[in-house]
Amino acid sequence: MAAKKANKKPVRYRMHVKKGDIVQVIAGSDKAKVGEVLAVFPKTSQVIVKGVNLKTKHVKPRAEGESGQIITKEAPIHSCKVMLYSTKQNVASRICYTYTEDGRKVRMLKKTGEIID
Predict the structure, then answer these.
(1) Exposed site from 2, 50, 57, 106, fewest CB < 10 Å?
(2) Cα–Cα distance, 49 to 105 (Å, whole number)
(3) DSSP annotation of 115
(4) How far is CA 46 from its chain centroid?
(5) pLDDT in tens, 46-92
(6) pTM of the predicted model as reported, rounded to 2 decimal places
(7) What structural domains and CATH numbers belong to the chain?
(8) Which of 6, 34, 5, 14 is CA-nearest to residue 92?
(9) How is the chain split among helix, strand and coil, in percent rounded to 5?
(10) 15: buried, middle or exposed (CB in 10 Å: 19+, 13-18, 0-12)?
């Protein structure tokens, strides 16, 4: 059995989506839902999408006289289950990286040719 290194850095996965992107879920119980990416977690390769993977939590009252409540919030899903979505042509697509005339590297949808960045 190998010993773990004490000062090993956590793995950060390269993500194809960023915060604020519009994505479509391509797998799971929320398949075909479209939403905006609210948060990205590169260490676990997960994303939180608005209106997708909703979980309910029952919260006990904290102070006396306060009532309990049921909160629904989005839980993270793996980034491989989402695909970037074009709102202009209503189609999900993979991305590729291209360069603009001024030399900037940008993300582009393969199906539509739409530049995201």
Answers:
(1) 2
(2) 25
(3) B
(4) 6
(5) 999 999 999 999 999 999 999 999 999 999 999 999 999 999 999 99
(6) 0.83
(7) 22-60+68-90 (2.30.30.30)
(8) 34
(9) 5, 40, 55
(10) middle
